[in-house]
Amino acid sequence: MKVYFSKNFDKGYKKLQRKIMRKADERIVLFSINPTDSILNNHLLFGKYEGHRSINITGDLRAIYTMIDEDTALFVAIGTHSQLYG
């Protein structure tokens, strides 16, 4: 799976602590290898992000993405549950 990042995602990523950045990197690599790995809790979103999907980075940190085509994902946001959905 090819993975791309929006400017909004990059902005949120740069605000993360280095330890959390490494965790995000690990999860995105795992996503690129196997997007349905159960560790990611990959799920469809509704409301504000209807049509997008989310993966878990840490207990409260999420990365939101949309599929561009069957082999390409665009990550559009990263943040805590309350930052993204609140």
Main traits of this protein?
single chain, about 90 residues, alpha+beta, YaeB-like fold, 5-stranded mixed β-sheet, 3 helices, 5 strands, about 35% helix, globular
Description:
- By secondary structure, the protein is α+β, with helices and mostly antiparallel strands.
- The chain has a single domain (2-85), classed as YaeB-like fold.
- It has 3 helices and 5 strands, in the order βααββββα.
- It has helices at residues 7-14, 18-33, 81-85, and strands at residues 2-5, 43-44, 53-56, 61-69, 72-80.
- A 5-stranded mixed beta sheet has the order 1-5-4-3-2.
- A hairpin with a 2-residue loop joins β4 (61-69) and β5 (72-80).
- The protein is globular.
- The model has no long low-confidence stretch (mean pLDDT 96).
- InterPro entries: RelE/ParE_toxin, RelE/ParE_toxin_dom_sf, Toxin_YafQ-like.
- Keywords: Toxin-antitoxin system.
- This is Type II toxin-antitoxin system mRNA interferase toxin, RelE/StbE family.
Topology of this protein?
Layout: E1 2-5, H1 7-14, H2 18-33, E2 43-44, E3 53-56, E4 61-69, E5 72-80, H3 81-85
Parallel strand pairs: 1-5
Antiparallel strand pairs: 2-3, 3-4, 4-5
